[in-house]
Amino acid sequence: MLRQRNVPIRIADIGPVSRRDVVEAKAVADKDLYHGVILAFNVKILPDAEKEIENKNIKLFSNPVIYSIIEEYISWVESERELAEKGEFKSLTPPCTFKVMKGYIFRRSDPAVFGVEVLAGRLRQKSEVMNASAKMVGTIRQLQEKGENIDEAPQGSEVAVSMNEPIIDRHIHEEDELFTVPKSDEAKFLLGKFSSRLTTNEIETLNKIVEIKRKTNPLYAF
Prior knowledge:
The chain is an alpha+beta fold.
């Protein structure tokens, strides 16, 4: 039944779950979390194995119904992979385009502080920023909304941005359209593995970012 699900088996045995079984599972888990588990069908777990399972943090599936064991395991793998993928996706720099608002320049340099409107995507702290000519202008230092610091601003937001590097009217001007710049490998992942997690506007924005970046770096996102 496991092979039909393309689940590899390191050891299949009869009798109670022993400490040796846990050690074997740990060796697999160190390389592959999803396969380093123990499936125990209608057998006991020896006391030393129980202690080792707790110490090594090994996942154990035990049930007197074999179908239930396999379904529980498959469900757990799917859930853990989804959580891991969500965490990986959240760590990537989101694609975003935003406009410098006219009349909202609060400080011209060191740091430059100005109001922006998020046109598409999500604007996040620590994102690198470029202009429409592919020239890098700096990194988002801080975002504020109504005087409160925020980590991220969604599409449609009007927030205050601070950046250390640029000087207003030299590097950035009112009504400029600016873009966040995911790292090349991040953009590649967003276009491929995580494209289903992006909105239509975010995909369009990311494609625009890639188009601009490739003017100066032809291998960007490859």
